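Hello,

I think I submitted the flavin mononucleotide job twice by accident. Can you confirm which output corresponds to this input? Input:
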Amino acid sequence: MSTREQSKVSVPIAFAHRLLAPRLVCLIGSCSSTKERTWNVAPFSNVVVVSNVPQRVGIAIYKEGTTYNNILALSEFTINMPDDSLIEELWLAGHNYNQLQYPRDLGKMDLLRLTSTAATSISVPVVTECFATLECRLIASYDLGDHQFFVGDVLYASLRADLQSPDWRLPLNRILPVLQNSGNQLALPTATRDLSTEQFQQELNSRVKARRASF
Ligand SMILES: Cc1cc2nc3c(=O)[nH]c(=O)nc-3n(C[C@H](O)[C@H](O)[C@H](O)COP(=O)(O)O)c2cc1C
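Support: Only one job matched these inputs. Its output is below.
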């Protein structure tokens, strides 16, 4: 049996989302709308680009927790990209998800080894230790089930200077963004494959020739 003909099993619908994996893990930064503007950071992997012109991104956030409430209240958030050196911090920041018990007198932001730097375009700060950040303003919010889908305009983007390349593509031989396979299994990108249009045009031409010859 060729690999394309392998038999398939039916996946319980409740687990279908686990097949959309691995997904990039981002640290979403947000602030309370109170006078103190308390800063909060939490990991999210349901993050997607929804428009290039204008630059817009979407995040699906479970309808409870600090990030959800902060984004609704202040309409601003940062999407920060951690690399593999921040796996401990991102896992500790996902306390509702992985059932970590923080004491009453010390919240997660007291214990996380993450620091903030003022953003360029919004009042929510950037996670200093992350290698890239998108600063976003909420433009739409959709109630789509147990998650809320927030869409934000990207107002400003920044990248660690040593990772800059002429086409702004991440140099994956020098930085490892973190992916979530599912649940408590994270993954790191281990290989890249560069595709050339010239090579694919040759492949396409030979298929066209073979198909025409078969008529
Ligand atoms: C790797 C990882 C990815 C996650 N992705 C999402 C997600 O896409 N959407 C979501 O609602 N929660 C997600 N979570 C769970 C939140 O991070 C978790 O509920 C967190 O405690 C929310 O914190 P907050 O109350 O400070 O907002 C994820 C957790 C981890 C560890």
